[in-house]
Each structure stands twice: as structure tokens, then as C-alpha cells.
């Protein structure tokens, strides 16, 4: 892992928009401040662990019990899931990008105060199972948090098939009081029912038990109404055909050693990517950018 302090990065640092710290577990962390918000990003997994608008509670959930260890995922924020989603025979769940250190390539502070941070996934041995590829990740912090995962097939002759997902954990006041809209009529695989295919019938999805739904062929915006925190969260996306909604509820929470037994009450995952039947196949030289824009507004 390298921290490439380009002239732009040094300028952003000098302007007070960027601070380099040792975060939890002594892992290198970048603290970003803008006129509207603050954010924290670890080089471990290029993981955004905090985004907070100045006048709101944090937008992202981070478990109090998360590990901050090389080779282990951070539980919360926005894990970068790549190049596969879910379990894979003999390999870890959710790919290797989230448990590897990414190189910091540049930090740019725009004249309006927005700050963009660009990471690149180094060429790890785990990538040898795939055709040559590059993965870059651009995090833009301003009134919103915009994430772009850019994957390019560097092979001269082989197709590169992969899954990607920005596995976002949102902080909510009380998960039983939220309503999730934007998925009515969409087919989904229900992991809690042996991946049985169903169709969403509600435009106000409520959480009252474990929920683990992979919605397929859906490109729309999802909103989370949170009456307890008095805000609406918006999840807009481009080049994403899958949305995953997950809350572990009581039993699963107790089984997760890096997650508090009651923390399910304060979080919901709404994840945007391309998984399962929506996996991506890039031709030689092809490139694909998964873009997710996370924003919020107070509920009138
Ligand atoms: O996002 C849905 C999911 O695939 C769930 O099934 C659950 O496994 C979750 O991801 C968390 O996975 P992790 O490997 O981070 O514990």
C-alpha cells in the first residue's frame, strides 16, 4: 500500500480538507472535511467508514464491535465487494477487495470545497485467478457521498466476468420504524427462504425479521424513510442492475462476533451493484463504472 502524496494531495492537506491519521487498529485512515460534511476512509478496503453532513446524524452505520485487522472486513460503512459477491467455494465471502489495502493515488480539493479521493487496487496474487484487470475507486465528498468503482479488462483476448457491490450500511433511528421504497414489482431472491424467487409487492418495505433480498434487474433509486431520525435517505445509482436489502435481525446478530447483539436495531443495508444474474462480462479492453450517490434530506 502506498500513499502517493501528489502535489494536489499536498494542496488538499494544506487547505485543511484532508488529514492522514492512524485509525482504529492503527490502520491508516484519511479524514476529509468539506463545507457541508466530514468523512473517514481507510486504505484497508478503500472503505468509507463515516460520512456525516454537518447538521445531521452520521449517514453510515459502523459496528462498535468491528475488527480493524489486516485480512479482515470492517463491519459497516461501505465495503467494496469485488470481484465476486456472496460465498465462493474455497474462497472468502464477498471477494478480496474489501480485505486488501488499496493504494491512494490522488486527493483533489475542488474550488467549491468538494474533495475527491482516488484509490487503485494493487495487483494481488488473488487476482491471478482472473484475466488481467484494473480496479479504481473514486470517492467524492460534498453535500452527498458519491462512489465510483471503475473496472477495466486489461486482457488482450479474454472476457472478464465479475460481480461488484457497494455494500452500504445506513444508520437508522429504529429499523422497525423505517420504510424502504423504490422496489415495488421487482423480482428478488430471498436468501432466508433458500433463495426462492419472489416479487416485491410493497412500496413501503418494513423490517420486522431477518431480511436478505437480492433484487434483480432494477436500476431505480431507492429511498429510506426514517421517521425516528427525521430524514429521508436516497440511494441513486448508475450501471447497477442489482439492489440488496439486508438486516440480520436477532439470531444472525448474535452469531456475528464483529456485530453487537442489538445493533440490528440501528442499521439497514441497501447495497447497489451487479450480482448473480446481473454479473458483468467485459470484453478485452472494456470498462464499467458502478456509480452510487448517497444523499439525505430532513423529512418535512
Ligand atoms: O448483503 C447481504 C449478505 O450477503 C448477507 O447474506 C450477509 O452475509 C451480509 O452480506 C454480510 O456478509 P459478511 O461477509 O460481511 O458478513
As a percent range, the share of strand residues is: 35-45%
The helix/strand order is HEEEEEEEEEEEEEEEEEEEHEEE
Oligomer: single chain
| CATH class wording | Mainly Beta
Q: Provide the domain count.
A: 1
> Helicity level, as a percent range?
under 10%
Question: Treating each run of at least 4 consecutive H or I residues as one helix, how many helices?
Answer: 2
Cα radius of gyration in angstroms: 18 Å
Listed once per kind, the bound small molecules are:
6-O-phosphono-beta-D-tagatofuranose
Let me know the average pLDDT: 96
CATH domain fold name: Beta-galactosidase, Chain A, domain 5
Q: Uncertain regions: pLDDT < 50 for 5+ in a row?
A: none
Q: What structural category do the secondary elements indicate?
A: mainly beta
Distance between the termini: 45 Å
Shape: globular
- Assigned CATH architecture: Distorted Sandwich
Number of strands: 22
Largest sheet report: 8 strands, antiparallel
Question: Main attributes?
Answer:
binds 6-O-phosphono-beta-D-tagatofuranose; 22 strands; eight-stranded antiparallel beta sheet; 5% helix; Beta-galactosidase, Chain A, domain 5; mainly beta; 2 helices; 300 residues
Plain-language structure description:
The model has no long low-confidence stretch (mean pLDDT 96). The chain has one domain: Beta-galactosidase, Chain A, domain 5 (Distorted Sandwich), CATH 2.70.98. The chain contains 2 helices and 22 strands. The chain is 5% helix and 41% strand. It is globular, with a radius of gyration of 18 Å. By secondary structure, the protein is mostly beta strands. 6-O-phosphono-beta-D-tagatofuranose binds next to strand 19 and strand 20.
Amino acid at each position: 500500500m502506498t500513499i502517493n502524496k501528489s502535489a494536489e494531495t499536498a494542496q488538499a492537506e494544506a487547505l485543511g480538507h484532508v488529514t492522514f491519521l492512524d485509525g482504529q487498529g492503527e490502520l491508516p485512515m484519511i479524514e476529509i472535511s468539506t463545507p457541508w460534511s466530514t468523512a473517514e476512509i481507510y486504505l484497508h478496503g478503500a472503505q468509507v467508514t463515516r460520512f456525516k453532513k454537518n447538521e445531521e446524524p452520521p449517514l453510515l452505520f459502523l459496528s462498535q464491535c468491528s475488527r480493524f485487522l489486516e485480512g479482515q472486513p470492517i463491519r459497516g460503512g461501505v465495503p467494496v465487494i469485488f470481484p465476486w459477491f456472496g460465498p465462493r467455494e474455497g474462497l472468502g465471502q464477498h471477494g478480496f477487495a474489501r480485505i486488501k489495502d488499496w493504494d491512494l493515488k490522488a486527493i483533489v480539493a475542488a474550488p467549491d470545497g468538494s474533495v475527491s479521493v482516488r484509490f487503485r487496487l494493487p495487483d494481488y496474487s488473488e487476482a491471478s485467478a482472473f484475466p488481467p484487470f484494473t480496479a479504481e475507486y473514486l470517492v467524492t465528498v460534498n453535500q452527498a457521498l458519491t462512489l465510483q468503482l471503475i473496472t477495466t479488462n486489461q486482457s488482450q483476448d479474454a472476457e472478464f466476468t465479475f460481480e461488484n457491490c457497494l455494500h452500504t450500511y445506513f444508520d437508522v433511528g429504529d429499523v422497525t420504524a423505517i420504510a424502504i421504497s423504490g422496489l415495488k414489482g421487482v423480482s428478488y431472491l430471498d436468501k432466508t427462504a433458500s433463495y426462492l424467487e419472489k416479487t416485491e409487492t410493497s412500496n413501503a418495505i418494513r423490517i420486522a425479521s431477518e431480511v436478505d433480498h437480492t433484487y434483480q434487474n432494477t436500476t431505480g433509486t431507492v429511498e429510506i424513510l426514517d421517521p425516528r431520525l427525521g430524514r429521508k435517505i436516497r440511494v441513486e445509482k448508475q450501471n447497477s442492475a442489482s439492489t440488496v436489502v439486508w438486516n440480520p435481525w436477532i439470531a444472525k446478530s448474535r452469531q456475528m462476533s464483529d456485530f453487537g447483539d442489538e445493533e440490528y436495531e440501528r442499521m439497514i443495508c441497501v447495497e447497489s451493484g451487479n450480482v448473480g444474474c446481473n454479473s458483468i462480462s467485459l470484453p478485452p479492453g472494456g470498462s464499467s463504472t458502478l456509480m452510487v450517490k448517497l444523499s439525505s434530506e430532513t423529512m418535512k
